[in-house]
């Protein structure tokens, strides 16, 4: 039987183990196997889209792990970092501390971090993941992947693996995507130029 104390020790071991796997993905497969509309993959493995070629995602709203309603569209006007993860995925565990670090340092600076937890058989494991790793932001609960499929249609920079990270600009459009575990430095590298951009307008399409 795993006690709360031993669970923490197990988690620490998993984080250390996952760090050695941080450049791999737990699974592949998604709506589109390409780089997406206008996407160009950089040396850091992050695909980016020029401002004039970006598109809006589909509907990304639902219930969080904490059973609250959340609509990512409500964060328009901010840079939105969407991290797609699963509690069973070692690279997701490895990158989580980097997301915690950057989410805290950008709090109140026009950046919103939101998770999407997927491919889970229940809420117990992802809730423990969220608590034990100290995620300071909410995560939508998408156990079947339907939210991701509808929210990132074919031809967009959509999630292809776990973990995946999607960056939305101030207009709510898809600006970049990473299909691997990423570091705090990579997060900053993507976020900073997006913060420097001006919003096209509240009704931009």
How are the elements arranged and paired?
Elements: H1 4-19, E1 27-28, E2 40-41, E3 46-48, E4 61-63, E5 69-71, E6 79-85, H2 90-105, E7 111-118, H3 124-132, E8 139-142, H4 146-151, E9 161-162, E10 164-168, E11 174-178, H5 184-196
Share of helix among residues?
A: 25-40%
**Cα end-to-end separation:** 53 Å
- In the CATH hierarchy, the third-tier topology is known as Glutaredoxin
SSE arrangement, N to C:
HEEEEEEHEHEHEEEH
Shape from CA axes? globular
Oligomer: single chain
Mind explaining what this structure looks like?
There is one protein chain. By secondary structure, the chain is an alpha+beta fold. It has one domain (4-196): 3-Layer(aba) Sandwich (Glutaredoxin), CATH 3.40.30.10. The protein contains five helices and eleven strands, in the order αββββββαβαβαβββα. The chain has helices at 4-19, 90-105, 124-132, 146-151, 184-196, and strands at residues 27-28, 40-41, 46-48, 61-63, 69-71, 79-85, 111-118, 139-142, 161-162, 164-168, 174-178. It has a seven-stranded mixed beta sheet with strand order 2-3-11-10-6-7-8. It has a two-stranded antiparallel ribbon with strand order 1-9. Strands 4-5 form a two-stranded antiparallel ribbon. Strand 10 (164-168) and strand 11 form a beta hairpin. The radius of gyration is 16 Å and the shape is globular. The termini are far apart. Mean pLDDT is 85; it is low at 1-23 and 29-36.
């Amino acid at each position: 039987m795993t006690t709360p104390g031993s669970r923490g020790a197990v988690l620490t071991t998993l984080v250390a183990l996952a760090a050695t796997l941080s450049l791999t993905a737990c699974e592949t497969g998604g709506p589109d196997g390409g780089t997406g509309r206008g996407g160009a993959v950089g040396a850091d493995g992050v695909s980016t889209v020029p401002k004039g070629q970006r598109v809006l995602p589909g509907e990304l709203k639902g219930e969080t792990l904490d059973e609250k309603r959340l609509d990512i569209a409500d964060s328009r006007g901010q840079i939105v970092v969407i991290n797609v993860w699963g509690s069973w995925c070692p690279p997701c565990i490895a990158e989580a501390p980097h997301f915690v670090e950057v989410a805290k340092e950008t709090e109140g600076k026009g950046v919103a971090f939101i998770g999407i937890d997927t491919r889970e058989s229940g809420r117990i494991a992802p809730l423990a993941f969220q608590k034990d790793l100290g995620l300071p932001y909410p995560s939508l609960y998408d156990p079947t992947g339907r939210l991701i499929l509808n929210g990132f249609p074919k031809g967009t920079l959509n999630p292809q693996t776990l973990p995946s990270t999607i960056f939305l600009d101030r207009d709510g459009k898809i600006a970049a995507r990473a299909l691997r575990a990423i570091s705090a430095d990579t997060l900053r590298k993507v976020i900073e130029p997006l913060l420097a951009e001006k919003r096209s307008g509240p009704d931009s399409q």
